[in-house]
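Q: Can someone sanity-check these two? First one:
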Amino acid sequence: MKSKSIKDILTNNAIYIVLLLLFVTIIIIDPSFLSLKNAGFILSQSATRMIFACAIAGPIVLGGTDLSAGRLIGLSGLITASLLQAPDYIARVFPNLPQLPIWLPIILAMLICALFSLIHGYLVAKLKVAPFIASLGMQLVVYGLMSVYFDAVSDSAPIGVLDARFTGFAQNGITIFGFRFQFIILYAVIIVALVWFIWNKTKLGKNMFAIGGNIEAATVSGVNIVVNMLAIYVLAGLLYGFGGALEVARTGSATNALGQGYELDAIASCVVGGVSMRGGIGTIKGIITGVLLFQVISYGLVYIQVNPYLVYFIKGLIILIAVVIDTKKYIKKK
């Protein structure tokens, strides 16, 4: 009985054991990885990833997925970057556009992303399209439109030299005891707290878990499946839009390649953090843990100069281990 208990503990925590071993290996190879500078860099990189993961976690808890997330993030970045270039930059894509309040393009980008997510949610909730197919189709639609926009406004040249107010919105911060806290980290904390509140303290959150856990039982209980699913998808779209704006403000430029693959990292972080791909299970604490662990390992592997192709292999292996553990838990529960 005791050995079985130990086996269960090791199995359920295998992904964390693997990540811990990788972390220790990175430190052994290069002890300088443990520094306040690297910690600050990882936190600033993780900030937008936390927002993306909290956004995509909703559709996953519903029992679906969202492969269009990365392209919506990129679309938001393109829109905000094109509308918020430095007013004295001679090669602005919209030379006659007056200097706009930074909140205006950000809200516009959020609303556009929310509209695409609403359509995506309608396909899944009302028309019963398989979530994977619906998200794959939406991914291609968004990428096609953002590429047309990118080509039209900038002739496929990177959109850079952004308004200092916009970049400062994300990059500015304060330094405490040698540790730099960028404002972007504060925004991520606020978004995480907001999503936690929605998930745990509102009827929408309870209905989300009910639908993901057993959609038939939720229907019998009187839950409006379509309305609640649409609300979760719209929330995801709003967060993609806000996170995409922060990401381009952090990096300082945008192309139609912005956001490529971000959805995979977000999904991986959710799975590592215990969000079940079968729906109905997930916590904000687990998601944030998954984001930080995944980001530490990803940056650590690059820091010790591991072959980039091997980094893809390791990240894929981590995802597979997490999914296998999730599947074993589901089978055992059944």
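And here is the second, same format, sequence then tokens:
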Amino acid sequence: MALCDQMEAEQADAESAHITLVHTLLATLTQSPDAAELAANWQRLAKHFDTLVTTESSLDALKQTVLQLAVMGKLVSQDPNDEPAAKLLGEIRTRRAISLKSGNPNPCEASVQSKKQEKQRCPLDLDELPRGWSWATLIQCAEIVVDCHNKTAPYTSKGIPLLRTTNIRNGSMNLKEPKFVSAETYERWSSRCKPRPGDILITREAPMGEVCIIPEGMTVCMGQRIMLIRLVDNTIVPRFLLYSLLEPGLMERVQDKPVGATVEHLRVGGVETLLVPLPPLAEQHRIVAKVDELMALFDRLKADLVESRKQQARLATTLIESSLKAA
């Protein structure tokens, strides 16, 4: 037992040192002042990848770093021929105005959204973005940003799935322990705006800042502490905005900071005025393609780590059983 305790302490010390080393090296990537140094730091990390990225936590840290680089404009190159984000925002503004003026998603909500748009401003002292990028608030990027019906919906044994905050995790929607509502409840709870495939959902509490995209072919009812983001078609790539909202520095871009004496939660205005670093549309597509590629690689590596750990556990069990039988 004493030997086991010693080995456990040494392993804990080694794991702590490993985590510190991984975070230090990953920080050099996000802190690289230019593309040349970033490339050099990537190469330095790549040389020792097999010894650095050996745990699920180190893989998760690498994922977070990739998302940071994506929203900083350091993951893919910029093309001076890309139409700048400022023009894209102008197109969104024009098409949104037409949509709201026509009464979408309904006359009452269109009026509310129009008034909120008039109040939108970005601070003047924001960090400088890459060429062609622009800062915007979330509601400036979208057609509408709508809060949920803030009451507990009456459940039914079957019907339309009711999304709760627990059903939104790690950038995806899950239907674990599903709850359902009737068609009548769905109509009432969706009176401001009916969720549709392609809409982005973000949680305001329990926990804050979890996001997902509603998959194709799904009809869902939005539960409490969730907000809906609907983009103007073919202006912002939904997965780019999803990755931007998953980025670990998200809370630093919230202007109306979280509140709560016991459980912190995002205000509605905090979500609406959240600052988004927006690249040109063509660059959004390049960023999404690169992030998708890297995330798929990381998921395969994590699956390999899990399988390796299972094999080690099976081997340890076999050795212990053999030792006990021998004794």
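A (reply): Looked at the second one. The longest strand covers residues 208-213. The chain has a mean pLDDT of 91.
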